[in-house]
């Protein structure tokens, strides 16, 4: 896909996020929206996957370590054709397969159940080690929140990844600067993030704007060319990106929009879509 097509797709993913969380009357829109562009880039450009064969042996793997942003992952999977888009409106409903956190047993395209913060990266490291031991070609990607990396288990996993020289592993940190309790620098600062990963023998790529497709394209290309060590992509993003009243507001970490707010949010995203169509 070219950059414009990716931008249009990401905007559709954002509509899916807002619609799902509104229908559920619960969920996590802020961090789903900040990561919508990277979800889109991964599933429409970067990863070797096939929605018609979600379990194909040589597929690239993705682990959503910050599992509460499942609405973002689900919206991308639906847009990519893993399941019907209308199913997004069943998010968190009793009997729906689209639970509040990713479930590998029931959701096509989900490679790892996740949600307990700090644990997803460990699973991703295990998958990457497995690929090396089996001489398989697949790559492993995992997305972490910047608040999540306050968890100690993240750094145990990073130590192992660096030690094993897992150049088939890409750890992405969604650095939107906000967690449920507010500014990450005030709650328990993880800064400088890049230098920490460097200390664990990672190749670090700092992305100034993780909501920019061209910058994401450059970062993932560089990660592919990196040999002999894992890569950490630390991307600065805007929490609630694309929805005017949600942007950079910690209060939208885990709050669902009411009907009036939903209408405003969708109008915002329609305007973005119209602007992209003019390009």
TrEMBL record:
User: What does the UniProt keyword field contain?
Assistant: Thiamine pyrophosphate
Cell membrane found in the keyword field:
no
What this protein needs as a cofactor is:
thiamine diphosphate
Q: Name the source's superkingdom.
A: Bacteria
> Which protein, by its recorded name, is this?
Transketolase N-terminal domain-containing protein
InterPro entries reported for this sequence: THDP-binding, Transketolase_N
Q: Which Gene3D superfamilies match?
A: 3.40.50.970
- What PANTHER family does this protein's entry cite? TRANSKETOLASE N-TERMINAL SECTION-RELATED (PTHR47514:SF1)
Give a Pfam family name: Transketolase_N
Q: Does the keyword Ion transport apply?
A: no
Q: Which residues form the Transketolase N-terminal domain?
A: 8-262
Q: Which residues cross the membrane?
A: none
